[in-house]
Amino acid sequence: MVLLVDFLIYLLRILHDEKEGNFMEQNINAKIWTGPFLVALINNFFLFTVYYALLTILPIYILNDLNGTEGQAGLAMTIFMLSAIIIRPFSGKIIEMFGKRKTLLISELLFCLSSILYVFIESLSLLLALRFFHGIWFSIVTTVLITVVNDNIPESRKGAGLGYFALSMNLAVVFGPFIALTIFQLYSYKVLIIGLVTVIVIGYLFAFTLKVSEYHPQTSTAKWYRLSWHDLFEKRVIPVAIVGYLTAFAYASVMSFISVYAETRGVFEYVSLFFIAFAIAMMAVRPFTGKLYDTKGPNAVVYPSFIFYASGLFLLSNMHTVATLLVAGVLMGVGYGSTVPCLQALAIQSAQKHRSGHATSTFFTIFDSGIAIGAFVLGIVSAKWGFPMLYILCGVIITLTIPVYWRLIGRKKDIRYSEPVCSQQE
């Protein structure tokens, strides 16, 4: 009860306090949309488009062409995420050892080669092996790309810049499945793979033009050959990552079960509209929330975003009509679509400049674990208590995440939101 009262008092103080001017001193009009930023954003969009397209079409290919079971189709999805989660903690060390540019170009090249191999795979065992191999390079390339784009965003525009960058991932959630299903229905599986490979190769060629800032701290040679907790994780990111874990855990209910739930309610054919509403809402608020983060700090974005997010989940629990489905999509687009970029920016800004790769890998290791564990746990919940209870539970989790965020991050007075927490000279 005391914690709740303190939290409410703190919220009231946020609403009435003016920031001490440290945000206004920053150049809020600094330019974001530079050539390197645009190249990185488009490249990221291509990577996640391929990821979500394969996520959509491979189960169909496994069931129809490889005569696999539903369990084997699910395993093909799980094994990709498993390898990505396993390798993610090592990504920061890899970036630190080989440099951002070399890591980016090699990992994306191997991601391209992995994508090409889908054309030739005609057995389930080889497909599962390829999925594991593919997940490794997806994990590394997406981690290093975030650190590269972070270098190309002005310090005073981190919230807006990383928000737009995260938007490219979220738009791929809509575009990837759409293009996959369209091409697969009109042409064939192999034509789809060739199209996806063409897209990712174009992105790879443009990656050579990216401006990359390397940072090599003075470190003893022996240290490069030791592997410690510090080499795998950035402890300063853990509080943000815990909040990200809870956010992702609840979102697993949408990624894994929204289609099945919609089918039980007789609105399956409108699920694609849910994601379109999600994307439109997310794009509509992105300029506003990005500027709000940079001028007022993350608390001004996170608290209302969690409220929108929880509202969308609660609404889904009582979904019977298309209108309810779409409104829930809008609420979650505003909530989830604003929360994740904000947490991502907080994670990067909580670490020293040369540790941005470790910060990114730590955050997404824990975030991806939330999706993986959430899908498993919520599958049990849905089987035992049904989908309405599943979404009520997720709404409660996000509601409780608000005081968790306040306790771990929001109440701290010494966070500098519009510049790195620990500046280092390049």
TrEMBL record:
UniProt KW Membrane keyword: yes
Compartment(s) of residence: Cell membrane
TM annotation in the entry: 37-61, 73-91, 103-121, 127-149, 161-185, 191-210, 237-261, 267-288, 300-319, 325-348, 360-383, 389-408
Top-level taxon of the source organism: Bacteria
Membrane topology: Multi-pass membrane protein
SUPFAM superfamilies, sorted: MFS general substrate transporter
A Pfam family the protein falls into: MFS_1
Gene Ontology cellular-component terms listed: plasma membrane
Family matches, as PANTHER family: PERMEASE (PTHR23531:SF2), QUINOLENE RESISTANCE PROTEIN NORA (PTHR23531)
Protein's name according to its UniProt entry: MFS transporter
Species this chain originates from: Lysinibacillus antri
